[in-house]
Amino acid sequence: MNVLLTGGAGYIGTHTAVELISAGHDVVVVDALSNGNAEAIRRVERITGHAVPFYPEDCSDPVVMEKILTDHPIDAVIHCAGLKAVGESTEQPLRYYRNNLDALLTVCEAMQAHGVRRMVFSSSATVYGDPAHVPITEDMPLSVSNPYGATKLFIEQILRDLAAADARWEIISLRYFNPIGAHESGLIGEDPHGVPNNLFPYIAQVAAGRRDKVRVFGDDYDTPDGTGVRDYLHVTDLALGHLAALEHLAGTPGHRVYNLGTGTGTSVLESIAAFERACGRRIPYEVVGRRPGDIATCYADPSAARRDLGWQTTRSIDEACADAWRWQSANPRGFAGG
Ligand code: WQD
After folding, report:
1. CA separation (Å) from 255 to 15, 120, 160, 244, 245?
2. Cα–ligand 1 centroid distance for 197 (angstroms)
3. ipTM here
4. What is the pTM for the complete model shown?
5. Quick one: which atom of ligand 1 is closest to the CA of 152?
6. Which whole-number Å values give the CA distances from 76 to 16, 117, 202, 250, in the listed order?
7. What percent of the chain has pLDDT over 90?
8. 148 is annotated as an active-site residue
């Protein structure tokens, strides 16, 4: 299929592009580079040996979307474009609602105008809020506590309404848990701008000597070792989840949601220990106060994706740490190092 990948120069987007191309699909990327990097597209081409038409533009611009869908016979869209920092969204709600909702609405309107009605949407486990119990299944209550999570919830509702109004739409929303790691080549990986919000890129930068220690946000949670527990899945497994969803879409009208996770919880201290095993270095840390808004435990029941999409994770957290360390070591300044 010819696939338009919005946000395709970002962490999830680049890894998804590699797996789509490796599976024989043709990929076109549009990315405004608010989080992504044009060098990452060149790395995707190097890994796959295929050219990737790239539009360094904002997909919320109708003129941009009209040009892309006119220039390319697109069969499906994988929509990853969006701002995604929880804390920042709380400080800048209007920017997040405008950016994330405008992008989705413009992309869907352009698709509809061109008769393209297959979409995989990058959603997030953050729509579950603080779950009443774990593992989390797709039918559990949804609740959000920040504008970023709200944009994911609102977009899922928009897509549900779209599919209900026109049965020709075939849509899957993928609720990511916590993606980590990097492509095995070490050529692409997570390259956060500024101080990493997320645990794993922060650990990687401490291991590389770019930061002095990991601050562990609380060890007084009701978890086995007191630190936060999450479902960390290898980004390549996540990318393959997009491929499975895309190939499942044909002939399945409606809107469906699937958890993409390992089904296993890992604590902050276990994550630090796993990275120490991967890099062969001690990673200093200090326990500090809880981060506002954090929950104790969150991990997936991924059985629906296994049943319907034939997808499950296969890579371990140790493999993810080894791949992340290979990327970090080879690219100490991320893509800026060229
Ligand atoms: C993981 C654990 C922290 C940093 C977020 C978003 C979610 C999704 C994934 C986009 C928690 C602890 C973290 C640090 C720490 N993003 N931690 N020190 O919060 O589960 O999910 O990223 O879709 O929407 O909410 O991930 O990596 O920030 O935190 O102790 O420096 O690590 O308390 O227990 P989170 P995270």
Report:
1. 24, 10, 5, 15, 12
2. 7
3. 0.97
4. 0.97
5. 23
6. 14, 7, 34, 10
7. 94
8. yes
